[in-house]
Design brief:
The chain has 197 residues and is an all-alpha fold. It has seven helices and no strands. The termini are far apart.
Amino acid sequence: MTSRHHRDHKKHRLADLSILSKNQWLILTEEVVMFFSIFRWVIIAALIGSVVGVVVGLFLNLLDISIEHTHQIPWYFLALPVVMAFNIWVTKRFAPDSEGHGTEKVIEAIHKDNGNIRGRVVPFKMLSTILTLAAGGSAGKEGPSAHIGGTMGSVLANLFKISPEDRKKFVICGISAGFSAVFGTPIAGAIFGVEVL
Protein backbone atom coordinates (compact mmCIF):
# COMPACT_ATOMS: atom_id res chain seq x y z
CA MET A 1 0.00 0.00 0.00
CA THR A 2 2.79 2.34 0.92
CA SER A 3 4.71 1.54 -2.23
CA ARG A 4 1.58 2.12 -4.36
CA HIS A 5 0.97 5.42 -2.57
CA HIS A 6 4.60 6.37 -3.16
CA ARG A 7 4.29 5.54 -6.90
CA ASP A 8 1.08 7.63 -7.21
CA HIS A 9 2.74 10.52 -5.41
CA LYS A 10 5.74 10.27 -7.75
CA LYS A 11 3.43 10.32 -10.83
CA HIS A 12 1.60 13.39 -9.52
CA ARG A 13 4.92 15.13 -8.91
CA LEU A 14 6.09 14.33 -12.45
CA ALA A 15 2.76 15.56 -13.86
CA ASP A 16 3.09 18.77 -11.83
CA LEU A 17 6.65 19.22 -13.11
CA SER A 18 5.58 18.69 -16.73
CA ILE A 19 2.76 21.26 -16.31
CA LEU A 20 5.20 23.61 -14.66
CA SER A 21 7.63 23.08 -17.50
CA LYS A 22 4.92 23.84 -20.07
CA ASN A 23 3.96 27.02 -18.22
CA GLN A 24 7.59 28.04 -17.88
CA TRP A 25 8.12 27.30 -21.56
CA LEU A 26 5.13 29.51 -22.50
CA ILE A 27 6.40 32.34 -20.31
CA LEU A 28 9.90 31.98 -21.74
CA THR A 29 8.52 31.97 -25.30
CA GLU A 30 6.46 35.11 -24.62
CA GLU A 31 9.49 36.84 -23.14
CA VAL A 32 11.65 35.93 -26.14
CA VAL A 33 8.98 37.15 -28.58
CA MET A 34 8.57 40.41 -26.64
CA PHE A 35 12.33 40.93 -26.50
CA PHE A 36 12.76 40.45 -30.25
CA SER A 37 9.74 42.66 -30.98
CA ILE A 38 11.14 45.47 -28.83
CA PHE A 39 14.63 44.98 -30.31
CA ARG A 40 13.15 45.12 -33.84
CA TRP A 41 11.33 48.38 -33.12
CA VAL A 42 14.42 49.93 -31.53
CA ILE A 43 16.33 49.22 -34.76
CA ILE A 44 13.45 50.51 -36.93
CA ALA A 45 13.06 53.67 -34.80
CA ALA A 46 16.81 54.32 -34.99
CA LEU A 47 16.74 53.92 -38.79
CA ILE A 48 13.75 56.26 -39.16
CA GLY A 49 15.27 58.74 -36.71
CA SER A 50 18.54 58.78 -38.66
CA VAL A 51 16.84 59.38 -42.02
CA VAL A 52 14.49 62.04 -40.60
CA GLY A 53 17.39 63.68 -38.74
CA VAL A 54 19.35 64.06 -41.99
CA VAL A 55 16.36 65.43 -43.95
CA VAL A 56 15.24 67.85 -41.20
CA GLY A 57 18.87 68.89 -40.62
CA LEU A 58 19.15 69.73 -44.33
CA PHE A 59 15.87 71.69 -44.12
CA LEU A 60 17.03 73.67 -41.06
CA ASN A 61 20.41 74.46 -42.67
CA LEU A 62 18.76 75.65 -45.89
CA LEU A 63 16.38 77.74 -43.80
CA ASP A 64 19.22 79.39 -41.86
CA ILE A 65 21.19 80.11 -45.04
CA SER A 66 18.17 81.62 -46.81
CA ILE A 67 17.26 83.83 -43.82
CA GLU A 68 20.86 84.97 -43.43
CA HIS A 69 21.12 86.00 -47.09
CA THR A 70 17.69 87.55 -47.64
CA HIS A 71 17.72 89.58 -44.42
CA GLN A 72 20.78 91.45 -45.69
CA ILE A 73 18.69 92.86 -48.55
CA PRO A 74 17.06 96.20 -47.66
CA TRP A 75 13.27 96.11 -47.63
CA TYR A 76 13.30 92.31 -48.14
CA PHE A 77 9.92 91.98 -46.40
CA LEU A 78 8.19 93.81 -49.28
CA ALA A 79 8.45 90.55 -51.23
CA LEU A 80 6.26 88.79 -48.64
CA PRO A 81 2.87 89.28 -50.42
CA VAL A 82 4.32 87.88 -53.66
CA VAL A 83 5.95 84.97 -51.81
CA MET A 84 2.70 84.16 -49.97
CA ALA A 85 0.68 84.26 -53.21
CA PHE A 86 3.26 81.95 -54.84
CA ASN A 87 3.16 79.56 -51.85
CA ILE A 88 -0.63 79.40 -51.94
CA TRP A 89 -0.65 78.73 -55.69
CA VAL A 90 2.07 76.04 -55.52
CA THR A 91 0.49 74.32 -52.52
CA LYS A 92 -3.05 74.29 -53.97
CA ARG A 93 -1.81 73.19 -57.39
CA PHE A 94 0.80 70.54 -56.57
CA ALA A 95 0.57 69.43 -52.93
CA PRO A 96 -2.69 70.32 -51.17
CA ASP A 97 -1.85 67.83 -48.40
CA SER A 98 1.16 69.98 -47.42
CA GLU A 99 -0.91 73.02 -46.43
CA GLY A 100 -1.43 74.05 -42.84
CA HIS A 101 0.81 74.09 -39.80
CA GLY A 102 1.99 70.52 -40.33
CA THR A 103 1.43 68.64 -37.09
CA GLU A 104 -2.35 68.50 -37.50
CA LYS A 105 -1.95 66.98 -40.99
CA VAL A 106 0.19 64.15 -39.60
CA ILE A 107 -2.27 63.48 -36.76
CA GLU A 108 -5.11 63.46 -39.30
CA ALA A 109 -3.20 61.03 -41.54
CA ILE A 110 -2.55 58.67 -38.61
CA HIS A 111 -6.16 58.60 -37.44
CA LYS A 112 -8.01 58.83 -40.77
CA ASP A 113 -5.70 57.44 -43.45
CA ASN A 114 -3.59 54.73 -41.70
CA GLY A 115 -0.59 57.07 -41.69
CA ASN A 116 -0.44 57.34 -45.46
CA ILE A 117 1.22 60.64 -46.47
CA ARG A 118 2.47 61.32 -49.99
CA GLY A 119 6.21 61.86 -50.35
CA ARG A 120 5.81 65.04 -52.37
CA VAL A 121 4.83 66.82 -49.15
CA VAL A 122 8.53 66.99 -48.14
CA PRO A 123 9.91 69.24 -50.93
CA PHE A 124 6.82 71.46 -51.04
CA LYS A 125 6.72 71.87 -47.25
CA MET A 126 10.41 72.73 -47.27
CA LEU A 127 10.04 75.22 -50.13
CA SER A 128 7.01 77.04 -48.74
CA THR A 129 8.46 77.30 -45.22
CA ILE A 130 11.87 78.50 -46.42
CA LEU A 131 10.31 81.13 -48.72
CA THR A 132 7.90 82.35 -46.03
CA LEU A 133 10.53 82.74 -43.31
CA ALA A 134 13.16 84.15 -45.67
CA ALA A 135 10.70 86.83 -46.79
CA GLY A 136 9.96 87.79 -43.18
CA GLY A 137 6.74 85.84 -42.75
CA SER A 138 5.47 84.88 -39.34
CA ALA A 139 5.71 81.10 -39.20
CA GLY A 140 7.48 78.44 -37.19
CA LYS A 141 9.81 75.64 -38.19
CA GLU A 142 8.52 73.12 -35.62
CA GLY A 143 5.29 72.16 -37.40
CA PRO A 144 6.95 71.77 -40.80
CA SER A 145 9.77 69.69 -39.26
CA ALA A 146 7.24 67.37 -37.61
CA HIS A 147 5.30 67.15 -40.91
CA ILE A 148 8.47 66.36 -42.86
CA GLY A 149 9.42 63.71 -40.26
CA GLY A 150 5.99 62.07 -40.36
CA THR A 151 6.04 62.09 -44.15
CA MET A 152 9.47 60.46 -44.24
CA GLY A 153 8.18 57.76 -41.86
CA SER A 154 5.27 57.10 -44.23
CA VAL A 155 7.59 57.03 -47.25
CA LEU A 156 9.87 54.48 -45.55
CA ALA A 157 6.84 52.35 -44.57
CA ASN A 158 5.65 52.33 -48.18
CA LEU A 159 9.17 51.56 -49.39
CA PHE A 160 9.35 48.47 -47.14
CA LYS A 161 5.69 47.55 -47.87
CA ILE A 162 4.67 47.66 -44.21
CA SER A 163 1.14 46.87 -42.99
CA PRO A 164 -1.18 49.87 -42.33
CA GLU A 165 -0.97 49.30 -38.57
CA ASP A 166 2.83 49.35 -38.61
CA ARG A 167 2.81 52.33 -41.01
CA LYS A 168 1.17 54.36 -38.24
CA LYS A 169 4.08 53.44 -35.96
CA PHE A 170 6.58 54.44 -38.68
CA VAL A 171 4.85 57.82 -39.01
CA ILE A 172 4.88 58.29 -35.23
CA CYS A 173 8.61 57.50 -35.17
CA GLY A 174 9.05 60.05 -37.97
CA ILE A 175 7.07 62.84 -36.31
CA SER A 176 8.94 62.20 -33.04
CA ALA A 177 12.28 62.38 -34.86
CA GLY A 178 11.28 65.60 -36.66
CA PHE A 179 10.20 67.17 -33.40
CA SER A 180 13.43 66.01 -31.71
CA ALA A 181 15.61 67.32 -34.54
CA VAL A 182 14.17 70.83 -34.49
CA PHE A 183 14.29 71.23 -30.70
CA GLY A 184 17.18 68.89 -29.86
CA THR A 185 14.98 67.10 -27.30
CA PRO A 186 14.75 63.34 -28.02
CA ILE A 187 12.82 62.39 -24.87
CA ALA A 188 10.24 65.15 -25.43
CA GLY A 189 10.01 63.99 -29.07
CA ALA A 190 9.27 60.42 -27.97
CA ILE A 191 6.59 61.60 -25.52
CA PHE A 192 5.11 63.81 -28.24
CA GLY A 193 4.89 60.78 -30.55
CA VAL A 194 3.02 58.80 -27.88
CA GLU A 195 0.60 61.73 -27.45
CA VAL A 196 -0.02 61.77 -31.21
CA LEU A 197 -0.91 58.07 -31.11
